[in-house]
Design a protein that fits this description.
It is built from two helices and eight strands. The chain is mainly beta. The protein has one domain: Nucleic acid-binding proteins (OB fold (Dihydrolipoamide Acetyltransferase, E2P), Beta Barrel). The chain has an eight-stranded mixed β-sheet with strand order 2-3-4-6-5-1-7-8, with no helix packed on it. β3 and β4 form a beta hairpin. The relative contact order is 0.20. The C terminus is likely disordered.
């Protein structure tokens, strides 16, 4: 980088983190039990914690989730979601997914062709299986 005298690595890392919005779908590896009943916890490659409702039984497995909210704290970002199977069939509350929201893998990069079926609200199969 020519002309750059000082580079703040923390600011650079934060600038490169992917933006995650409610309604997006992602695949995460459920690593451990959460603090609340029946929660599972996963981490993105950048260290972001993902708390998934009703995912305790998925510990040690990959899970497709729908992001329900994102919380910025002083310690960093937290993502909350629920398992795809818990998303209502009519997609109420998840119109962004039903109408073409992108699916992300656990590195935060989008799966291009892994969108939900508008007819069923169920995610189409992912071409980039783990």
């Amino acid at each position: 980088l020519h002309g750059v005298q000082i580079l703040n690595i923390n600011e650079l890392a934060n600038a490169l983190k992917p933006v995650v919005l409610p309604g997006e779908a992602m695949r995460v590896f459920i690593l451990k039990e959460g603090k609340e009943y029946n929660q599972g916890v996963a981490y993105l490659d950048d260290g972001t914690m993902v708390v998934v409702d009703n995912a305790r039984r998925m510990i040690g497995k990959n899970a497709d989730i729908s992001v329900t909210s994102v919380l910025q704290t002083t310690a960093g970002k937290m993502i909350f979601g629920r398992l795809w199977e818990d998303v209502p069939e009519n997609g109420v509350g998840d119109s962004r997914i039903i109408n073409g929201g992108t699916r992300r893998n656990n590195t935060g990069t989008s799966y291009r062709d892994a969108r939900t079926s508008a007819a069923t609200g169920v995610p189409r199969s992912i071409e980039h299986e783990d």
